[in-house]
Amino acid sequence: MNNKLDIIPINKWYKELTDKPVIIAGPCSAETEVQVLQTAIEIAKIPQVKIFRAGIWKPRTRPGSFEGVGAVGLKWLAKVKQKTRLLTAVEVATPEHIRICKQNPGSVDIIWIGARTTANPFSVQELADALKDCNMPVMIKNPINPDLSLWVGAIERIYNSGIRKIAAIHRGFSPFEPTKLRNIPKWEIPIDLKLQFPNLEIINDPSHISGNTSYIKEVAQDAADLNLDGLMIETHINPKHALSDAKQQLKPTELATLLNGIKYRLAENKNPEFLNHLEQFRYQIDSIDQQIIELLAQRMSVVENIGMFKAENNVTIFQIKRWKQIISSRLKLGKDYKLNTDFMRKLLQLVHKESIRKQKIVLKIKNGN
Ligand code: PEP
Ligand code: MN
Fold first, then answer.
1. Mean pLDDT across 27-43
2. CATH number of 10-261: 3.40.50.620, 3.20.20.70, 3.40.50.450, 3.40.50.2000?
3. What's the 115 CA to ligand 1 centre distance in angstroms?
4. Contacts (Cβ under 8 Å, ≥6 apart) of 77
5. So what's the pLDDT on residue 267?
6. Which residue has the CA at smallest separation from atom 1 of ligand 1?
7. For 162-218, how does the pLDDT look when each residue is reduced to its tens digit (9 = 90+)?
8. Is the CB–ligand 1 distance for residue 239 below 6 Å?
9. Taking the mean position of all CA atoms in its chain, how far away is CA 213?
10. Which of 47, 112, 341, 346 gets the highest tally of CB atoms within 10 A of its CB?
11. 10 Å Cβ neighbour count for 149?
12. What is the CATH architecture of 272-366?
């Protein structure tokens, strides 16, 4: 698969989708016809929002939670389309869901594949097969585990089924230990995805990353700063009584305030003075990086000499006293230069690990094995 996926950009999916960023909002789950319609009517008053989301089949971690209203929800979405200007989107997890969407024309404009489904290539392939010859736009959420190739694989499977209206949704990754956020953003992963597929648009889902309304703004601003292409934000007419993800859903008025508060910077500035200045900064960075790499190479060559010297004198590779001394002196120096201690510690550990690896090689060569 080459990196030039022949993808149709979101602004060509439907005539309503001309603006960037693409804003998607709606409840985690469709619960009742009234809740869906009231939420949609309020959301439609927010000009930035173009797509209404609502889950009707809910993949829940534990049985016994609300699992969605099922096919009847499509009738409510059809009403949303009749009564508002909004396009509609739902999550599908099985070929049967796709079949039901196809049997209900006029209810769903866009489908998305959820994080739990993306994590399973068998399920994604079944969905891809069910989508053959269907012109439906598909958004693919990242898998719950931080595995870029699983995400890429899901995108490729859908692409190979002939779908060309494709976008990705970044909803963060399950943490091993509880963290302040429900899911860790790991921004480097969507950035890597963008580097692999430069024309694939990525929508950020700050609701599932945050898990709590307090952090949504912060995460959405990070997404805007990283120049992601849109937002999907869970919004409910009465969040307190939501049957799923109650803690992370905003009221429509809160959504409007949040969207108006996000600062969008220019992804590119064509002003020659700006470009000139930026170029100068980049030269500085290039030159400094080159020096860092040269110094690292020099350090490693000294490490090899030490390794040889220790081997000749029958001394162990790792000496805890020396390591402690390195850590404390370098951390202090880093602090003096206002470098983050956590960053410094990780950097030192990485350099130390590589130094030990090098010395082990020297020892092996010396011992002739
Ligand atoms: C959802 O969008 O409501 C949902 C279930 O999300 P995710 O697949 O990201 O967990
Ligand atoms: Mn949800």
1. 98
2. 3.20.20.70
3. 6
4. 30, 36, 52, 54, 56, 88, 90, 107, 108
5. 81
6. 28
7. 999 999 999 999 998 889 999 999 999 999 999 899 999 999 999 999 999 999 999
8. no
9. 18
10. 112
11. 10
12. Up-down Bundle (1.20)
Sheet strands (E) in the chain: 22-26, 49-53, 87-92, 110-113, 138-141, 166-170, 202-204, 230-234
What the block records as the tokens of 138 is: 């598909």
Enumerate the CATH 3.20.20.70 domain ranges in the chain, comma separated: 10-261
SS3 24: strand
At 132-142, the pLDDT tens digits run 989 999 999 99
With CA atoms as reference, report the closest residue to 206 among 157, 245, 155, 151: 245
Question: What b/e string do you get for 166-200 counting C-beta neighbours within 10 Å, with b at 16 or more?
Answer: bbbbbbbbeeeeeeebbbbbbbebbeebbebbeeb
Q: What's the pLDDT at 242?
A: 97
359, amino acid identity: Q
- 157 token code pair: 């499977």
Contact by Cβ (8 Å): 179, 218: no
The CB density around residue 279, as the number of other CB atoms within 10 Å, is 10
Residue type (1 letter), 344: M
Q: What is the mean pLDDT of residues 63-82?
A: 96
Nearest Cα residue to 208 out of 200, 219, 192, 222: 219
Q: Tell me the average pLDDT of the chain.
A: 94
Distance 42 CA to ligand 2 centre (A): 19
Task: Say how many Å lie between the CA of residue 186 and the centre of ligand 1.
Answer: 17
From residue 311, alpha-carbon distances to 229, 272, 366 in Å are 56, 58, 7
- How far apart are the C-alpha atoms of 138 and 110, rounded to whole Å? 6
Structure tokens at 334: 């880093």
Q: Which atom of ligand 1 is nearest to the CA of 169?
A: 9
Q: What pLDDT was estimated at residue 90?
A: 98
Average pLDDT of the segment spanning 249-277: 93
Helix %, strand %, coil % of the chain (to 5): 50, 10, 35
